[in-house]
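Summary for the lay section of the report: proteins are chains of building blocks that fold into shapes. Here we show the chain for Transmembrane transcriptional regulator and then a coded description of the shape we predicted for it.
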Amino acid sequence: MQIGDCWFDAHEHLLVDASGCRWMLSVDEYQVLSVLAKNQGKVVSRFELIQLLSSYGKDSSCCDDILYDVIKRLRTILGKKPYSLLDTVRGEGFILYSSSPSTHHKLLDSPTYQINPIQFALVILVTLVTLCGIGMHITHPTEIAPNFRQQIRMANGSSSEVRFYTGQNYGVEMKSLVKQMMGQIEACAVFPWQSIAANVSADRKLISFILRGNRDNGLKYQTVKLMSDNFILDTSQPDWLTLTGICR
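The coded shape description reads as follows.
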C-alpha cells in the first residue's frame, strides 16, 4: 500500500521509507499503522487505537504509553514535523496523510489547524484592508469622459451642464448635430434640469437623454429616447425639445 513516498507491505509487516530503507514493524506498530492506513485522510481517535492495542492482551493502563512509543517510531519512518505524513490532531487522535512529505501542506490538509491570537488578528486586519480597497473601487468608479461637455447659460440666468457621449467616431456630422442641439437647449424659455447627458448609439439612429433635475423632494431623473434616420433634419426645429419635455 502506498503511503506518500513510502510503501507499506502489510503481508510482510514491512515499511519502506522514501529513501528505500526497509523497516520491520513490531506487532503493535503494524496494527496501528494498518488502521491508520485504511483511514488515510481521516482522524482515528486515540481511544480507538488504545482499544486496538488492549485487545491483544495488553494491560489497558499501559496502552497509552505503548501508543506514544508506536507513534514516535512511525514518525521516524514517515518523516518528521512539520512535513510528517503522520500528524496529531489535538484532542481527537491521529491522522495519516496520503500526500508525500514534499507536497504535504498542513494548513490545507489538517482538519484542525490552529493559529495563535496574533496570527488571527493579522488575518482579520488584512481582510479588512482588502475589503476597504474593494469597496473604494466600487463606490468610486472611473468616470467615462464624454466626447463633448459644456456649461450653458439659460435664458432665465441659470446654468446647466450638457454632456454628449458619441463613441469614438466623433465626425463632422456629429459635431454639427451637437452644436445645433446646444444652441436650441440654451434658447429654452424654461429648462428645469440641472444637467443633461446624451448618449448616441453606434449606428447614429438612437439618442438617449438622461435629465437630472433638482427638486425640493430630492434629485429627480428622467430619460428621453429619440429614434431617427436623420437627427440633424428632424431636430432642426426647436419644437422637439418641448414635445419631449426637455424644455418647458
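Put simply, here is one thing we learned. Confidence is low (pLDDT under 50) at residues 101-112.
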